């Protein structure tokens, strides 16, 4: 039975952050699909620091550091206590974080191309990507919220990830399951090689103080949408919608 009590022997870096390997997608899906998947995943930088994507045995992965503390850690100023093991001492130092901007200029963005992030100027075509209704953002007044009860742009602030973790890596699985909810929640084993989880980590393509996507309507040099297709090819692709989503059944009936 999976546990959320990791076998730690002291307070340490694992109390504040956790290195992980995330699966982006299959190489068989083709570069076009993987560019969308990688742009989407690597955009969610609020609580994730990403390395350089790498290919291994037909799959594309990325190493990342998750900045979500352990739910068993109690911090009081400069002192901390582990509520499970009883360790006490100075609060473990949070790891330094380098900037990871995805919007690097008025028309320049960091998007995935050929499996890695590159800076590209992204323009608007003559006919921009359509939106629902009268052309305004249908999510602008949405009452949607993530599990931390922050309202607005919920689907841009959380993500479902596949964490590479075999059944033999019991310590890693326990450390993942011990992360503080709801910042990491809905953890379940996907098979022998990985576990799935939901992480609240906002996308950096969101315009500041709005629910608007800065990639919306922009295109790459080859004409493909700069905005990841999984961000607008839904719902039927998404079986579960956030509470208060304007695309939910009740909202559609109104």
This entry's quaternary arrangement is: single chain
Give the ordered list of helices and strands.
EHEEEEEEEEHEHEEH
Distance between the termini: 45 Å
Structural class, from helix and strand content? alpha+beta
Largest sheet: 4 strands, antiparallel
Question: Quick recap of the structure?
Answer:
The protein has 254 residues and is α+β, with helices and mostly antiparallel strands.
Report on the structure:
This protein is an alpha+beta fold. It has one domain (13-253). The chain is 12% helix and 26% strand. The chain has helices at residues 31-43, 154-157, 170-177, 249-253; strands at 18-26, 48-50, 54-56, 59-66, 73-76, 79-82, 88-90, 108-113, 116-121, 158-164, 184-189, 194-200. Strands 1, 2, 3 and 4 form a 4-stranded antiparallel sheet that branches. A 3-stranded antiparallel sheet has the order 5-6-7, with no helix packed on it. Strand 3 (54-56) and strand 4 form a beta hairpin.
